[in-house]
Structure formats: C-alpha cells, structure tokens
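User: Teach me something about this protein's shape.
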Amino acid sequence: MSLPICVTCGVQYDGPREDCPVCEDARQYVGLDGQQWTTLHELRGGHKNAIREEGGFVGIGTEPKFAIGQRALLVPHSDGNILWDCVTLLDAETEREIDSRGGLHAIAISHPHYYSAMVEWAHRFDCPVWLHEADREWVMRDDPKLRFWSGPTHDLGDGLTLVRCGGHFAGGTVLHRGSDLLAGDIVQVIPDRGWVSFMYSFPNFIPLPEAEIRSIEAALEPFEYDTIYGAWWGTVIPGDGKGIVRRSVQRYVDALNGKLP
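Assistant: First, the predicted structure itself:
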C-alpha cells in the first residue's frame, strides 16, 4: 500500500487518515483547499531531485518545489555520509547518486517539519535516523530505524555534533562541524546575510519569547563556527556566523522589549 504524504508539509504517515497533526499545529497550516494527500509513487511522476554543490556540501532538493521546499545536505563521514535534514522524494536517480558518493551512514533531522519520508530513506540506505527525544510526539510513522537522543548534544563521530537549541520546536537541533553550522530553520538565514532570525512559527509569524532566544544563544555559545547553512538553496552565510548570531539574538530581544532597530 502506498502510504499517504501530506502535500503541505511533506510528512509521510503510517496509514490513511483525514487530518495532518503537523499542519494543524500553530507552527504550520492547512492549505486553503483543505487537507490534501499524495503518495511517493505519485510524487515520482512529476518531480525529481536536483543534486548539486551547496557551499562545501552536496545539496538535494526537489523540483518543482514540493511542500515546504527545504533541501537536504550530504555531510561527509568516514563511514559514509550523514544526510542532514531530509526531503520527501526518494527515487532511483537519487539512490544511484548517493550510492556513488558512499551511501548514508545516518540521517539527522533538525525538527518535525522535515521528517518527510525519513523511514523510506532509512530503509533504502539501511541507516538510523537521529531525532531528539523532545520531539518524539511528532513522529507520524514509527519504525525501529528511528533513534532518539536526549540531552544538549549528541556526538555523531568525525567531529560532527548535534546540538539541541529548542526554539522552533522543543527538540530543535542544529549540526556543528568544524567552522560550519547546519541550522535548518532553527536559526533562520534571512535575505540580509548580516543577520539571522528565530521564530516559533514562520508561516504564521509567531515570535519566540526572550527566554527561548537566550536558550538558543546559550546552546550555541560553546561552539565556534563561521559559515551558517540554512534550510533552502542559497541560504548560506559565508562568514562571521557566530558574531551574526550573537548580534541577531540581541536585536531580537531588543525588539521584543520595544527597542526597534
């Protein structure tokens, strides 16, 4: 049976249903035409994955845009690659391309909006999916391949560290590697590359309280990084990443307290 996939968020479910809890949550939305579903088979009929360089990594993003439109990143690892975040579409061409690059050692995902078809990917490449325990309730297709970590950090080896920041979701996670911070939209790369932002809900414009912003700042403070990779093609800050995060935190807090830029 082809498992249902929400057209708005791209999350695959374990069986037919009428609602998508991910989209009915205040951080997301149900489309104007109501809840719509597709399947992986149907998605393969009209979409493909673009696979190309994105800064120092290889990016994977679905075209035409599907659901939220994020792109994943292949992060080199001595035992293969780590797939950072995930996209829903998995087809034969994508499989061949990833196999030619060493396959996948693991998948790690920043937050539930990008859970997509993670179980399909995990079974195809026979690898675990690392998710933060605090977001377990948002798993809509459970599977033994899912591994839940807890606490502030998780070591993936080879200098790769998952860091729990919270904010957008309780288990909101970034990936740190050397001078790189792979941030999803836990730390949002915005059009002005001199700044980043943070939100509880991006589509619904719901801000985070000061305490959550300070928690993100504190979680990232022990790590050094220059380059920040966001969740979509081209969302890359090439330098001074840590300084930009620090300044952006203060600007955000100032705005919450009535001191506008």
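Now, about its shape. The longest helix spans residues 241-256. The chain is about 20% helix and 25% strand. If you'd like, I can walk through any region in more detail.
User: That's plenty for now, thanks!
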